[in-house]
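Need tokens for this chain, all 269 residues.
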Amino acid sequence: MHPRQHDPSRSDPPRLFAWAGWPATWALVLTLLALRLVYLVWLCPYTLVEDEAHYWEWSRRLDLSYYTKGPGVAWLIALATATLGDHAWAVRAPAAIASAVASLAVARLAHDLSDDRRAAFFGALAFNLAPVHHALAMLMTIDGPYLACWAVACMCAWRALRNRSGPALLGLALAAGAGFLLKYTMLLLAPGLALAALLVRARTRADHQTPRRPARRALWPLAATALFLGAISPVLIWNAQRGWPTLAHLLEHLSPPTADTDAPTPPVS
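Here are the structure tokens for all 269 residues:
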């Protein structure tokens, strides 16, 4: 039997959601960003909530770090208000921008995981349909920028593992360092990345792929480690100068609550 010949006169069936590529993804993300900024500037009736006011006060007294958290949120607010003025919408503008960054990172990761450009659009759409992500795009707390750093770190990590990309490894280090300046739980990304690296390495050996030279392979991780340590150095310097108060504060959250022995014993009925 002869193989079936393709008839050029018969067109292939239309691809489902063929329009949902990167142009549509960028249009979605930028439209949402513009709408959120318009709302914050001209339509939002709400003043700063407690956390926002607290971090805004930090931004007026910039430091390398603070007792409970890193300096990331204060630095972002200080940059925004220095550029846009002391307005509530200026304080919140970094949250809207961070949401756009997170949306694009999720879109890129979805595209890389599926090798389908349509996944980029629907990944960004699904991200923004979550009510919590919409709220984080409108309120300037640590969580919105932190989520953006986490998303960018995951995107870079996948590219570094899949393609053995040195620049992607540097991007991972920078995103993880920036996330640490916002929230120390960024370190919880490390165990998952270590497990993923072990799995990828095991699969590479099973496929009998030829590894790169050890000296060249070690250069990028060393540079990434140096970049991460440099990014988190403000927190380390601030704490080292003050006897590590943030570490003591975090350990208090891990210790079980102690009973108050001086409290009166309730009567037994």
